[in-house]
Amino acid sequence: MSFWLWVLGSAYLVLLGVAAWRSYRRNQSADDYALAGSNVGVFLGFLTFSATLFSTFTLMGMPDFFRTHGVGAWIFLAVSDGAMVFLVVWFGFHLRRKVAEKGFQGMSGLMTACYGSRWAGYVFYAGVFLFLVPYVAIQVRGIAVFLNSAYPAALPAWAWASIIVIVMLIYSEIGGLKAIMYSDVMQGLLLLTMTWVIAVQCIDHFGGIRPMFDEVERVNEALLSVPGPNGLFGIPFLIASFFAILMIPVTQPQLTIRVVVMRNLRATHRMAVAVGFFAMIVILPTIAIGMYGAVRYPEAPAAAFWAQVLLFEQPGLVAAAVIVGLVAAAMSTADSQIFALGTELRSLLTGEERAVMRRTRIAIVVFAAAALVFSILSSDQLVALALKSFQGTSMLAPMVFAAVFSARTPGREVIALTALALLAYIASLLGWLPAAVATVPVELVILLAAALLTLVSVVVRQRQPVAAGPAPRS
Questions:
Q1: Is residue 46 part of a domain?
Q2: Which site among 63, 173, 206, 219 is 20 to 30 Å from 167 CA-CA?
Q3: Sorting pLDDT into bands at 50, 70 and 90, what band is 379?
Q4: In 10 A of CB 177, how many CB atoms?
């Protein structure tokens, strides 16, 4: 395995270097660097969107989720991602129309332009910063723990995490968004391939799909139905998580930017359909890996399960490819999110473009350092932490929808409502609010309340007469 790891790892680093240098040579302006020239085709668009959406937690978190909570995980993620495709098509049309009207450097800047208030941009930026930094951290945390399990005598987990962050910063700082997109292509194809290779081996262990589920039924029948052995997949949880995942392209800027920078609307729609297909074929094999773990390693900690199934039970070439693929997945998603935070900050800054870009690049390094610290302190529950990130950023959705769909300037009360929704969700995470209201998860209650009040605000303002301009002079 060590031989193949050196070969594949070196090849991946060389390709990253080529992608960064090629992007650097093509970046003629700040918009080229930050927005990839806003001329992305379908193939690159759907792979960069998919790779950013499906990352370390797909090959590590999702199998562990199936192993622990059962087949209801398919409803939790795949159904939500399928619905998200339709939202991208619908929302993407209106978002691109609003961008053509207002211009675009980032969603925070777009919120400022739509509301006529910098506070809209500040609230949006605060929301994505608070919940994207932990999401970046779990990508880095997952692969660092995995590498530490694979090579316990080599480096501690924090050292692996530091190496990943440093490499990620080098090529993203050099090549910008286009370099990140090229790395996404490599990561997406490698992740899909290795997930299916391991899944086929897991199915072969049982002699087929039906014998696999028969064995799972013998070990723990509750895994084959909802709400699962731990009672997680009840209707309230599934509805709340559905809305949280559905809102990802609306509220998480690393994906919203990818909708905006597509070449045209037709390319955007084709990209969305391709992402939906990719979602199905990348999540499906994780069921087999999770069911295999439920039979072979039902009580093992997550890190031990990952190491055994993804590494120690695999041939050397496959194990090396898995390690490279997971490192690529962690870096691909993490750098997209950190770079998006930098782009969002750029959209709020004013001044000479060169000075703005210098401050943006410095901020990207600071964001990466914050994510590194959080990755060292966070837990191994990748999917659970990812869901908290999705739920947190979903609180921004009503404000974004009001900005994109309102013909008139939305009221500033929407900004205040969004800030209160974010504070309420944070309070729920800290245990200051109950986890549920009459069995309805509190995060869903907060989101629906914010959405309803925002809708009332928009409707009332739409019905108000347009103020008359000054009378013409005689």
A1: yes
A2: 63
A3: low
A4: 30
Query: Torsions phi, psi of 441, nearest 5?
Result: -55, 140
Asked whether residue 296 is assigned to any structural domain, the reply reads: yes
Instruction: Please give the DSSP secondary-structure letter assigned to residue 296.
Output: H
> Which pairing describes strands 440-441 and 436-437: parallel, antiparallel, or unpaired?
antiparallel
Domains in the chain, number: 1
CA distance 92 to 247: 12
Query: How many Å apart are CA 438 and CA 235, to the nearest integer?
Result: 13
Contact status, residue 102 vs residue 261, Cβ threshold 8 Å: no
Is the pLDDT at 474 greater than 50, yes or no? no
Q: What angle do CA 69, 71, 74 make, to 5 degrees?
A: 110
First-residue to last-residue Cα distance in the chain? 87
CATH number at residue 353: 1.20.1730.10
| Spatial contact of 138 and 62, defined as CB atoms under 8 Å apart | no
Q: For residue 274, give the nearest of 289, 288, 257, 262 by alpha carbon.
A: 262
Q: CA-CA distances (angstroms) from residue 63 to 198, 290, 385?
A: 11, 4, 15
Kindly report the length of the chain.
474
Residue 129: helix, strand or coil by DSSP? helix
Centre a 10 Å sphere on the Cβ of residue 474 and count the other Cβ atoms it contains.
3
Q: Residue 210: inside a domain, yes or no?
A: yes
d(CA 95, CA 37): 18
Other beta carbons within 10 angstroms of residue 379's beta carbon come to 11
Handedness of CA 421, 423, 426, 432 (dihedral sign): negative
Please give the radius of gyration of the chain, using alpha carbons only, rounded to the nearest integer. 23
Query: Average per-residue pLDDT in the chain?
Result: 87
CA distance 42 to 45: 5
Task: Report pLDDT digits (tens) over 206-249.
Answer: 999 999 999 999 999 999 999 999 998 988 888 888 988 888 89
Report yes or no on whether pTM surpasses 0.70.
yes
What torsion do the CA atoms of 253, 258, 263, 269 make, to the nearest 10 degrees? Answer: -110
Contact by Cβ (8 Å): 420, 270? no
* pLDDT 10s digits, 306-327: 888 988 898 888 888 888 888 8
Instruction: With respect to residue 447, please indicate whether it lies within any of the assigned structural domains.
Output: no
Write out pLDDT tens, residues 67-109. Answer: 999 999 898 888 888 888 889 999 999 999 999 999 998 999 9
Query: Which pLDDT score, from 0 to 100, does residue 134 have?
Result: 79
DSSP for 321-356, written as a single string: HHHHHHHHHHHHHHHHHHHHHHHHHHHH--S-HHHH
